[in-house]
Amino acid sequence: MLIIPALTGFATGFSLILAIGAQNAFVLRQGLARAHVFWLCLLCATSDALLITAGVLGFGAIVTLYPMLPQIMAWGGAAFLIVYGAMRLQAAWQGKYDMQIAGQSAGLWPTLATGAAFTWLNPHVYLDTLGLVGAVSTQYLQTAPKAAFGAGAVIASFVFFFGLGYGARLLTPVMQSARAWRVLDVLIGLVMWALAIKLIS
């Protein structure tokens, strides 16, 4: 039965992606702003799908061949998180949130570029998708169960990101003041810096 490996893949993928991270915080912020939600969620979920597929196919072995790769990715990701965290704290300091309250944000392409950076410059994404998901998939020796496991993990990513992006709208009534957006940006900025410290420690 393929339903068992598919459910295992779904549970594995969902549990790994559920933790609060830079990518999730950015999707949440865009969902609250009600701006470019569909394309951002599609980008994040599709990126995860590509990485999960690579992990299930055994791409994680590259890390074994290039042991310095995780450290290089960690420093690059930490630098990005520090800069983005500073941007969010600066925005909180300035307190200008007319666009966000009106449901507007930066343009589509800058938003997607930031989302791509959160995805592809985050070493934890590679650890979760290429490493952990790939490792769990090794219990399935036949092609069909392994594919079902991978499909379940991919579906989990799509469910999570679109649920987070569009579910954030439920909090819209709370986010109708500059003060609420300022608190959110302070929290996101501090989370970004904490993640950066964790990456390089």
Topology, please?
Elements: H1 3-17, H2 22-33, H3 37-56, H4 61-65, H5 69-94, H6 98-101, H7 108-120, H8 123-137, H9 143-167, H10 178-200
Helix pairs in contact: 1-8, 1-9, 2-3, 2-9, 2-10, 3-7, 3-8, 3-9, 5-10
Number of β-strand runs: 0
Please bin the fraction of helical residues.
over 70%
Q: What value does the average pLDDT take?
A: 82
Radius of gyration: 18 Å
Cα separation of the termini: 44 Å
Q: Which outline best applies?
A: globular
Entry summary:
The protein is an all-alpha fold and 201 residues long.
Question: What would the keywords be for this entry?
Answer:
201 residues; globular
Question: What does this protein look like?
Answer:
The protein has one domain. By secondary structure, the chain is mainly α.
